[in-house]
């Protein structure tokens, strides 16, 4: 596969870190809002948060602080997808997602978390590229999505990423991202767990799936990505579809989710440790969702939800 050299970046090499009080304050606000973690030496760990994935001994030089970001690139499934198409309107400050116009037509009602990240909790003006697909798995040959057209992470990376955005995006007119002003996010695993749920070869399949995950993020790294945000799998055992299967299967799924999240954490930890110029955030959605299920007002943003157990048009919590 063609990987454009990282050297096509113009200014990344000369970039100097800017860690300032304002950046720290912004990071602290994000920590409070989302329980995200930034593992630069300056960050402090909130009470609700998970352990850091890996803390480098030095400050990675590409992390500009939240207020220094200009772009976000999203890889993921329906929790993230906005159904962006590169051939239609590109993102701009007036319209940070480009196309389609909000609210669009996605499986959950927008705004999605990706909308909030770009347009509400942003600390700078951002533009975004969505490469995610509803129903996506990580390795779409191993865990075939329910429709052929759905691209797994493997094809999200090998397709539009490699063609248009890798190496700073040579044909990505209007999306001049650079290593030091871009956050790249990955939220996968939900569909992978669902598809292999009853498979006896599940352990082996997951191992291969996580190998594909690792290879994909290595490609993104070699294409210039340095700042990453990973999501683990939320408590999908509490989703109405699983609850309907009965308590035994619900428990089985809960165990699988815990195992998966541990394996994912290990992979991300190793990736971050091996690349000492990366900054990696970990959003423990399992923890955030659980807190909200226990007490919807544990987070200001979810206090307005009406129904925490089923799919309803107003709450839109479950796909
Ligand atoms: C949204 O998409 C679904 C499935 O792709 C389609 O059936 C429906 O007509 C669309 N709705 C609108 C308002 O475009
Ligand atoms: C966040 O994004 C919105 C929508 O693009 C923009 O109007 C706003 O100025 C941004 N906030 C900051 C702090 O730049
Ligand atoms: C795992 O098992 C499933 C179901 O039996 C099968 O369809 C699939 O091909 C197997 N995958 C691998 C990689 O062995
Ligand atoms: C980071 O890793 C590179 C390549 O492995 C190595 O050459 C460099 O010395 C490391 N830098 C620090 C500060 O550890
Ligand atoms: C589900 C969906 O339509 N996702 C879109 C997200 O963006 C990619 C590539 O930019 C599109 O190909 C997908 O159609």
TrEMBL record:
The chain crosses the membrane at residues 21-39. Gene3D superfamilies: SGNH hydrolase. Keywords: Membrane, Transmembrane, Transmembrane helix. Pfam families: Lipase_GDSL. It comes from the Eukaryota. The keyword Signal does not apply. InterPro entries: GDSL, SGNH_hydro_sf. Belongs to the 'GDSL' lipolytic enzyme family. This is Uncharacterized protein. The lineage of its organism: Eukaryota, Fungi, Dikarya, Ascomycota, Pezizomycotina.
């Amino acid at each position: 596969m063609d990987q454009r050299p990282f050297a096509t970046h113009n200014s990344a090499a000369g970039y100097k870190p800017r860690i300032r009080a304002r950046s720290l304050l912004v990071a602290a606000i994000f920590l409070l809002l989302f329980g995200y973690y930034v593992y630069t030496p300056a960050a402090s760990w909130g009470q609700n948060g998970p352990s850091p994935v890996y803390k480098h001994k030095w400050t990675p030089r590409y992390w500009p602080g939240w207020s220094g970001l200009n772009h976000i690139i999203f890889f993921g499934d329906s929790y993230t997808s906005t159904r962006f198409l590169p051939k239609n309107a590109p993102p701009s400050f007036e319209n940070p997602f480009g196309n389609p116009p909000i609210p669009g037509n996605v499986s959950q009602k927008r705004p999605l978390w990706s909308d909030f990240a770009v347009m509400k909790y942003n600390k700078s003006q951002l533009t975004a590229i969505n490469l995610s697909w509803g129903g996506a798995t990580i390795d779409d040959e191993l865990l075939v999505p329910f429709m052929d057209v759905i691209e797994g992470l493997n094809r999200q990376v090998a397709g539009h990423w490699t063609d248009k955005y890798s190496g700073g995006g040579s044909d990505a007119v209007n999306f001049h991202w650079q290593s030091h002003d871009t956050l790249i996010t990955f939220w996968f695993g939900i569909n992978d767990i669902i598809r292999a749920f009853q498979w006896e070869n599940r352990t082996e399949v997951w191992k291969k799936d996580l190998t594909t995950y690792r290879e994909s993020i290595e490609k993104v790294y070699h294409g210039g990505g340095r700042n990453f945000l990973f999501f683990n799998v939320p408590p999908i055992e509490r989703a109405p579809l699983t609850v309907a299967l009965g308590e035994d299967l619900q428990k089985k799924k809960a165990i699988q989710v815990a195992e998966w999240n541990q394996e994912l954490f290990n992979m991300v930890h190793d990736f971050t440790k091996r690349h000492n110029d990366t900054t990696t955030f970990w959003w423990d959605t399992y923890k955030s969702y659980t807190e909200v299920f226990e007490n919807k007002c544990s987070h200001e943003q979810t206090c307005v939800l009406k129904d925490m157990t089923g799919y309803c048009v107003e709450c839109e919590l479950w796909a």
